[in-house]
Design goal:
Spore Coat Polysaccharide Biosynthesis Protein SpsA, Chain A; seven-stranded mixed beta sheet; 12 strands; globular; binds guanosine-5'-triphosphate; binds magnesium ion; Alpha-1,2-mannosyltransferase; alpha-1,2-mannosyltransferase activity; Nucleotide-diphossugar_trans
Length: 412
Amino acid sequence: MARSNARLVRFAFFALLLILSAYILSKGSSSSYAVSNNSPHSVADIKESLNQKHGTSNAAANSNSNSNSNTDNSKSIANANKKIIAGDKVKATFVTLARNSDVWEILGSIRQVEDRFNRNFGYDWVFLNDEEFSEEFKRETSRLVSGKTHYGLIPHDQWSFPEWIDTNKAAETRERMRQEKVIYGDSISYRHMCRFESGFFFRHPLMEQFDYYWRVEPGVKIFCDIDYDIFKFMQDNDYEYSYTISLPEYQATIPTLWETTKHFLKEYPQYLHPNNFMDWLSDDGGVTYNGCHFWSNFEIGKLDFWRSDAYLAYFDYLDKAGGFFYERWGDAPVHSIAVGLFMDKQKIHFFDDLGYYHVPFNNCPVNEQTRLEKNCVCNPNDDITFKNYFCNNKYYKLKGLKKPEGWEKYGD
Ligand SMILES: Nc1nc2c(ncn2[C@@H]2O[C@H](COP(=O)(O)OP(=O)(O)OP(=O)(O)O)[C@@H](O)[C@H]2O)c(=O)[nH]1
Ligand SMILES: [Mg+2]
């Protein structure tokens, strides 16, 4: 009897050990990826476990009730900082357009975004490409992302010359811009990229399930901890577009963009928002464009804005005018003009607390307290925010925002 009891105990012990090993193994596979093009994959649904994880790990972040002097920012970080509970997450994703050859550079961007923010939140990441993603790209990126990864192929018609474009005329422009040394002026793929980011990234089937996005490019840096749910922050404050760096566009790349925009507004006056940000785009009441744009290699925004009738009509109008190919219209001025004209300016937000770098410009919080609280690793002397060449002084002025303490030291 005693012996059969001992056997029973041994059996129970090994069974328990087996169950435990199986559990540990299943946890270890949570960041794998799927090979499908257009449908979200879910090799392992880690959402639940992440949500549970957040329930505990975010409680520690509650001490940050933000002492930024930017009145805009201090609005409701506290709210976004609340404990994340299951089902409380925003429908949001990171989105990256990349070539297979960008894989090593995008790893650095992902690592930074994960370390500074996403490892505590587990948001998904959508990767888009005009070619099939390589196994290497999928393997390397999926191992770093704490949320699910999705890999999508861009439809051919969104990455080629539309039938109404005169390709000889487009080639002449490229040749002229090559001689004039306009940056990316002779590139076809750069133009497809700008057109895609202007008109199509938000329509990709993989993006349909999401309400908010954060665009991330290869080789960027995040300098500070983001210890609150930044997507929830956007949602709670009703922000629809946010940025970190703004600057004037090279006029040589957009000679007729503003004229085309004015024609559009004449035809569709109903789309001009009554509380628009025209004064940031134009110094003479809309006659000319001063080139100010939000640098679109960083964007956190609400997808519904791009899906709106106003924006879709605007993009279509620009696309038919042909300036993506006959000139070199960038997605940054296109997005910015649309935001400035069709969005309530209250819904635009400047992040002064993240710290961001994309070659060659830095956004580094000039407020020392912010840098200390958020463990920033940047030199405020490199910050461009308050330099005259850029468009942020104007932004602060038009929005009536209080500049951070000591900002004068970092202006010109
Ligand atoms: N799939 C794909 N992605 C591209 C292509 N060209 C650019 N991209 C991506 O589009 C985004 C913008 O391209 P960049 O080359 O970074 O353009 P940029 O930021 O204006 O210029 P840089 O100063 O060189 O960074 C990046 O995420 C690139 O990875 C392309 O031909 N194919
Ligand atoms: Mg770039």
